[in-house]
Amino acid sequence: MSTYSFLDVNATLVGPGGSVNLGASAAAAEEGITVEAMEDKNIMTIGAGGQGMHSLVANKASTVTIRLLRTSPTNNALQNMYNFQTGSSSRHGRNVIVITDLQRGDVITASGAAFKREPTLTYAKEGGMLEWSFDAISTVRVLGVGTPSIF
User: Fold this and answer.
1) pLDDT, tens only, 71-87
2) Using CA atoms, how far apart are residues 66 and 33, in angstroms rounded to an integer?
3) Concatenated DSSP letters of 86-129
């Protein structure tokens, strides 16, 4: 039987203005981290006669979304980096995000990452979470085989 735990997930943002831990110890919200491809890898075209063609899209871009509890001190570190990086085009889009799951052997590297926008702030009955989104020009995913069974 295999077991998953967010405690095994390490994530780091490195770029102009600092390095920020985004993994299990960063007070992540239940929804955690999402890596989503920007577009489909395939475009299928069907001609007038019914013949088909597949086009392989070279795009490796993705959106990485980090969800943190409203009270996480990591929000301050990300806001400071956001403010610094968006103050000059020479600092914008130069982040690298690396996400690893040590138990599964997963390694995701998103490079050329830029803050997409500041998170929406909601002041309500419950603290909720802040979502930090990044657009990455190139994302390489290596999914491991998982923890070998010891039984």
Assistant:
1) 999 999 999 999 999 99
2) 5
3) TT-TTTTT-EEEEEEETTTTEEEEEEEEEEEEPPPP--SSS--E
